[in-house]
Give the backbone structure.
Amino acid sequence: MKKSIPGTPSELKDLENKEKKISYRNIFGWVFQILLWIAILFCFIFKNTRSLGAISFEFFCLIYIIYLIIEFFSETSKFLCNKKKNKGIYEKMVEYFKTPPTITLNCESYHFENKIGNNVGNYLGEEVITYKEDYIFPYYSQRDVSGLFYINCDKTNALKKKYIKLVLDVEVNFADSISYYDYEVQKYNLWKRNRFKDALFLYYESRSIPGFVHHNLITIGDKEPLMVNFYLFAIITILGFSEIYKSYVNSLCVYQKFKIRKLISTRYDLNQPDFEKQYQSLVPRINLIVKHINFNPNEYTYLNNDYEVKIPTEKELEEAKKYENKIPNYQISTGEEGIQAGVIIDNPDYSNYDKSPPKGFEYYSGNTVLSPEIINPNGDVPPEFGKPRPKSKNKSKESNNKENEMNNNRLLPENEDSFLGEKEHINIEEDQKGYIPPSIY
C-alpha cells in the first residue's frame, strides 16, 4: 500500500488516515487524568489527617484545574463545539466549494504612552491604536481548485464510522501575475495612506472563506449516536472521566485533513472556456466510498459583475513579470492504488504571503519609530519619502545595532511624552483606485 503524498487532502501528521500513533497531547491528557484519580484517592485516604489532608486537597485542586484546561482546549472539545454548526459532509463541502473567498488587508497605526511613575528609558507603556483600516481586496472572478476530497480508508472501516474529524485549511492564491501586481498596488496604497499617521505601524492580512471553521465533526451516515455532543463531554469532563469519553468518540471517527484551494483574478474571467482545459483536472469532487459527487463548473465559480475590469496595459504586464514566481503551479497527485488524491503545488519558489514592507517603505518599516516631525494624522507622506537616503558616517556599528534592536521590539522612544494626545478612531473610506508614484512602480 502506497503512502499518502504530503500536501494531499489525506495528509495526516503521520501520513496515515487514522491516528495510529498516540500523540503527545493524548499522552499529556491521560497523564493528568490518572493524576486526578490519584489525587482523589489521596483525599479519601488522608481525609482524617489534618496536615496530609490539606496537602492532598491542594494537590487535587492544582491537578483538577490543569486537567480542565487541557480537556476543554483539546481537539476533541473543538470538534464537539462545532458539531452543532455543521451540516452533513456533502452539504458542508459543497458550501465551501461554492463560497467565494475574501482577502482583507489590515493595518494599525499606534504609539506607546508611558504610565505614571515609569522612569525614562525603560520603554514600558500602554499601546494606543490611533488609526485602523480593514480593506477588503476587490477582484473579478474566482475558481475553486481543491480537487478530489475522499475518505482515505477501506470501505468496511468507513461504513462502521459515524463521523469525520475533518481539519480544514484554506488557501487563497492569485491565478496570474497581473492579479498579484494589483494586490501589491493596493497593499502599497494602504501603507502610503496610513504609515505616517503615527509613530509605529502594524500590517497583517487574512485570506479565508466566510463562515469557515477549522475543526469540523461531520456526520457520514444518516444516523448518529445520541451520546456524542459537547454538553455530555462537559459533564463527563467535570466528573473526571474525560479521556474515557474521548476514546469512545475517537472510535466513531475517521480523522482527515483537507485544504480548500481558491484562485482569484482581478483582470480575467476564470470561468471562460480558455481556462477550462487548464483547471479541468482541479475541479472539486467528493468521493466518500458510499457516494461519489462531481460538480458542475457553474457551481464552484464566481463572477463579480459590479467590479470594473480594466484591460492590462503593456507597462502593467511588464511590471507584473516580477511576480511570476508568486503564482502557484497546481498538479494532481496520485494516492493509493492510482486514485487521484488531490492537489499539490509543484513550484518550490512559490510564496503566497510576503510580510516585508512594500517597495519604498524599507526605511519606514512598521517597527521603525517615526519622529514627531514626520507624523501626520492626515496621512501625508514626508517630503523626503521616495528619495535616496544619505548614509550616516558618524553612526557607529554599535549604535546601529542598538537602534535596530529597539525598533524590532516595538519600543517607545526615549521620552515620556506620547507622540499624540487622546486616542482617536477614524474610519478610512476604501479607495480602490489608489495612487502609484512612477518612482515606485
